[in-house]
Amino acid sequence: MANEVTYQLYIRLSRACRIQAGRLPYRRLPAGWYVYTGSARRNLAARVERHLRRDKPRRWHIDWLLTRREARVIHVVLSQAAECPLNAETGGEVLIPGFGASDCRAACGSHLRYLGSERPAAVPAESLHRRQPGLRALRTALGAEE
Fold this sequence. Notes:
Strand order of the largest sheet: 5-1-4-6
Number of strands: 6
Structural class: alpha+beta
Number of helices: 4
């Protein structure tokens, strides 16, 4: 879709946890790095800023992860690439089948991928030391800062 912008949230889970996202079954997530791929047709900044807040009603699968104390969005990447191909290119391991993919027609399996314990190359090292790294990365990607 021409007006659709894809975003990727790079999330660091400080310790293992068990979550249940909506109607999906409980799953154990190991500590480490995750990437969530989503898209927005309009109000991209508002959508991503909502993801960055902890205090919110749980509406999407990602909300069940991002409202946890252990989870922190460290980096945000915006792309004009289509959501599902970008998700597939990202690689990583699917730990929660169906997560964020209820409207997916490309058989992605999940839009949340586990990337392991090492910082992904897509995440700048300085992001680890920022107070609100996700919000700053979003503003930078939108051209509002730096």
